[in-house]
UniProtKB/TrEMBL annotation:
<dbReference type="InterPro" id="IPR011004">
    <property type="entry name" value="Trimer_LpxA-like_sf"/>
</dbReference>
<feature type="domain" description="Glucose-1-phosphate adenylyltransferase/Bifunctional protein GlmU-like C-terminal hexapeptide">
    <location>
        <begin position="306"/>
        <end position="409"/>
    </location>
</feature>
<comment type="similarity">
    <text>Belongs to the bacterial/plant glucose-1-phosphate adenylyltransferase family.</text>
</comment>
<comment type="function">
    <text>Involved in the biosynthesis of ADP-glucose, a building block required for the elongation reactions to produce glycogen. Catalyzes the reaction between ATP and alpha-D-glucose 1-phosphate (G1P) to produce pyrophosphate and ADP-Glc.</text>
</comment>
<protein>
    <recommendedName>
        <fullName>Glucose-1-phosphate adenylyltransferase</fullName>
        <ecNumber>2.7.7.27</ecNumber>
    </recommendedName>
</protein>
<dbReference type="Pfam" id="PF00483">
    <property type="entry name" value="NTP_transferase"/>
</dbReference>
<dbReference type="Pfam" id="PF24894">
    <property type="entry name" value="Hexapep_GlmU"/>
</dbReference>
<feature type="site" description="Could play a key role in the communication between the regulatory and the substrate sites">
    <location>
        <position position="105"/>
    </location>
</feature>
<keyword id="KW-0808">Transferase</keyword>
<keyword id="KW-0067">ATP-binding</keyword>
<feature type="domain" description="Nucleotidyl transferase">
    <location>
        <begin position="14"/>
        <end position="283"/>
    </location>
</feature>
<dbReference type="InterPro" id="IPR023049">
    <property type="entry name" value="GlgC_bac"/>
</dbReference>
<keyword id="KW-0320">Glycogen biosynthesis</keyword>
<comment type="subunit">
    <text>Homotetramer.</text>
</comment>
<dbReference type="InterPro" id="IPR029044">
    <property type="entry name" value="Nucleotide-diphossugar_trans"/>
</dbReference>
<feature type="binding site">
    <location>
        <position position="171"/>
    </location>
    <ligand>
        <name>alpha-D-glucose 1-phosphate</name>
    </ligand>
</feature>
<feature type="binding site">
    <location>
        <position position="106"/>
    </location>
    <ligand>
        <name>alpha-D-glucose 1-phosphate</name>
    </ligand>
</feature>
């Protein structure tokens, strides 16, 4: 007999792994961990995993933090403090705190759970959903948990369908006709196809569902293995594939779409180019990621700010935004903005222009600045007359220019430039 979906949610918890360095985002993660990086005008990256959990009916959530965690912890405390313990719901922050003995940090993704076994035990749950906190997508986790229960698997792994030519960058799953995983391959040179379509491969999303009793025993054994790296992808999952039953769950079966015909949207915004593009995708006429959906909202901490303001209407001094997203608290004073995304409290001044710009909160753009194809970090003061995005060689002298030609600007970079000039 299949349990009702409401019953499954009430007996499940989400364990969010949010401690990764995110070094490929370069200076954007100098002061914050990747899940705490801003995205989409108001939210942070971690808000997608947390919102998916809440929207799926899961009200017991743990977030394991490690590197540069203050920004993430503060965000969770401010934006995710609506849980009520008297209703048996909560969000716990679990920093690496030497709970296991001599180790100062979590030794791997599995060890992050192992060091908190007593806390998970206290939740009294049947199912544990392991999530990465650093991807952009909408997914009904309840459908995946239901699939796990119905299949009788030891672990169910969320997976993406990707072209074989692109799958070498992922951990991939070889499956049989019932999507039971027969092998788990880490970044193979020749990825396997699927039984129904040899041109595509199933790539792991880093999302796992376990029965807690099974996972608990596995974690204890793994913690005593001196040869283990204590990682789900490297150690636990291959062990289950070899000696147990591992079930693949296709993202297309549980993704939340804007329309039934919309593509299944998932993005790893782990590079400056990917981060820039995913943010600017939201300025499309019909974005693939629906941030306006009230049926599956993305929750976050919302500052109390006034509406955006546009002022001046003169030749070359017109406050206007075209095909752009402009967040609350922004003042667009005599600036032309095109194909850009501005976060909260961005102020721009007369005769400036922004094109294909992702501008994080509390940035000030001085007069006559021209900025094209840029990402600007939080709190940056763009000096008067600065031109970026028109001369790549000049930009590279002072700023971080990505492989895709996106220029990342931070205050430290501008300070060094000012000192040199």
């Amino acid at each position: 007999m299949t349990l009702s979906s409401n019953r499954l949610a009430s007996k499940s918890m989400a364990f969010v792994l949010a401690g990764g360095r995110g070094s490929r985002l370069r200076e954007l993660t100098d002061r914050r961990v990747k899940p705490a990086v801003y995205f989409g005008g108001k939210t942070r990256i971690i808000d997608f995993a947390l919102s998916n959990a809440v929207n799926s009916g899961i009200r017991r959530i743990s977030v394991a933090t490690q590197y540069k965690a203050h920004s993430l912890i503060r965000h969770c405390q401010r934006g995710w403090n609506f849980f009520r313990a008297e209703r048996n719901e909560f969000l716990d922050i679990l920093p690496a705190s030497q709970r296991g003995g001599d180790e100062a940090w979590y030794r791997g993704t599995a060890d992050a759970v192992t060091q908190n076994i007593d806390i998970v035990d206290s939740y009294d749950v049947d199912y544990v959903l392991i999530l990465a906190g650093d991807h952009i997508y909408k997914m009904d986790y309840e459908l995946m948990i239901q699939h796990h229960v119905d299949s009788g698997a030891d672990v169910t792994i969320g997976c993406l369908t990707v072209p074989r030519a692109e799958a070498s960058a992922f951990g991939v799953l070889d499956v049989d006709k019932d999507d039971v995983i027969t092998s788990f391959l880490e970044k193979p040179a020749d990825p396997p196809g699927t039984p129904d379509d040899p041109s595509v491969t199933l790539a792991s999303m880093g999302i796992y569902v376990f029965n807690w009793k099974f996972l608990r025993d596995l974690l204890v054994r793994d913690s005593e293995d001196p040869n283990s790296s204590h990682d789900f992808g490297n150690d636990l999952i291959p062990e289950i594939v070899k000696n147990g039953k591992a079930q693949a769950h296709r993202f297309t079966d549980s993704c939340v779409r804007a329309t039934p015909q919309a593509p299944a949207y998932w993005r790893d915004v782990g590079t400056v180019d990917a981060f820039w593009k995913a943010n600017l995708d939201l300025t499309d006429f019909t974005p693939e990621l629906d941030m306006w959906d009230t049926e599956w909202p993305i929750w976050t901490y919302s500052e109390s700010v006034p509406p955006a303001k546009f002022i001046h209407n003169e030749a070359n001094r017109r406050g206007v935004a075209i095909s752009s997203l402009v967040s609350g608290g922004c003042i667009i004073s005599g600036t032309e903005i095109r194909n850009s995304l501005l976060f909260t409290q961005v102020h721009t001044n007369s005769y400036a222009s922004l094109d294909q710009a992702v501008v994080l909160p509390y940035v000030n753009v001085a007069r006559s600045a021209r900025l094209t194809k840029v990402v600007i970090d939080r709190g940056v003061h763009i000096p008067e007359g600065l031109i970026v995005g028109e001369d790549p060689d000049e930009d590279k002298k002072w700023f971080r220019v990505s492989e895709g030609g996106v220029t990342l600007i931070t205050q430290n970079m501008l300070n060094k430039r000012a000192a040199a000039l």
